[in-house]
């Protein structure tokens, strides 16, 4: 009888343990935990799964502000959880399905999704300015290609239809009297730009990634044909820190803390470049990836002051999508895509 009782007791403990584990590992929505302040008061801790910073380079990054902010102790009632979801289409689907709650996203992609019914909003400017996030398109140094007309009938890589660089690419071609239909776009895997250029199978290849741009430029074999900011307005920031409207409505205090910490850490990274570099090197090591690229290519991300969003960041891409008939005119407004209301410097920004 005693053995039976001991067996039942052990079984109950096992069941409780399994239930706890299942509860803690459930995914798909943001989770809420309870913590206690020093005064003993219970505080709601909101978990925010993030993406769009380091997934693109296999874990290597020189810009991971939310993770750095957490390491610096800027968040008390939110918990940032790393995600391997990369930037691009996967980021959008992960955000709209609530697998993640925050992501760096291009306004062009967000505007297109909003036209189809998604409700997303940038709560701060992420990286995406002329000095720190500029798409570079390269051709061989001895190439005969010097203008859009020289690309007619040729194949190029690294430009994805619907992404930010695509609209710059189309405008650049049109200014040179060339239709985008006259140049074939070929998919190139991220991280392979230098290798693709070396194979000489394409007329040219482009990339946003510092870790790809710098080795290409350092080789001395290739020259820059055009960049997105040869076409974009100089003060345009093409990426924002996006959340779903549902998450914003349900967690306004968490969003305020997130944006405040985001602004604070970006200002800290600007003022402390060496410490920022050290922290990103450590992040690479924690993720078990090669940190030598961070050591070699780390640069301070130059974000607009206090991460404020400007109306034109969104409006520029809405206008482009309408111009090329990707969305109906009047379907999306700039105010659908951004807000500065959670920014502690909101009074200095666009409404």
Structural class: alpha/beta
CATH topology of the largest domain: D-Maltodextrin-Binding Protein, domain 2
Please indicate the percent range of residues in DSSP E strands (runs of 2 or more): 15-25%
The succession of helices and strands, N to C, reads HEEHEHEHEEEHEHEHEEHHHHH
Number of strands: 11
CATH architecture of the largest domain: 3-Layer(aba) Sandwich
How would you name the CATH homologous superfamily of the largest domain? Periplasmic binding protein-like II
Largest sheet descriptor: 6 strands, mixed
- Write down the CATH class of the largest domain: Alpha Beta
Mean pLDDT: 85
Q: Quick one: overall form? A: globular
The tally of structural domains comes to: 2
Rg (C-alpha, Å)? 23 Å
Give the count of helical stretches.
12
Parts with pLDDT < 50 across at least 5 consecutive residues: 2-30, 35-42
Helix content: 25-40%
Distance between the termini: 73 Å
Family: Belongs to the bacterial solute-binding protein SsuA/TauA family.
Pfam families: NMT1 (PF09084)
Protein name: ABC transporter substrate-binding protein
Domain SsuA/THI5-like: 65-275
Q: Your description of this structure?
A:
- By secondary structure, this protein is of the alpha/beta class.
- The protein has 2 domains: 45-130 and 236-348, 3-Layer(aba) Sandwich (D-Maltodextrin-Binding Protein, domain 2); 136-230, Periplasmic binding protein-like II (D-Maltodextrin-Binding Protein, domain 2), CATH 3.40.190.
- 39% of the residues lie in helices and 16% in strands.
- It has helices at 2-25, 65-71, 89-96, 107-115, 164-175, 193-199, 210-219, 245-250, 252-271, 273-286, 292-297, 311-323; strands spanning 32-36, 42-51, 78-81, 102-106, 120-125, 136-140, 155-157, 184-186, 204-207, 222-227, 239-244.
- The strands form 2 sheets. Strands 1, 2, 3, 4, 5 and 11 form a 6-stranded mixed sheet that branches. A 5-stranded mixed sheet has the order 8-7-9-6-10, covered by helices on one side.
- α4 crosses α12 (311-323).
- The longest helix is centred in the first third of the chain and has 24 residues, at 2-25.
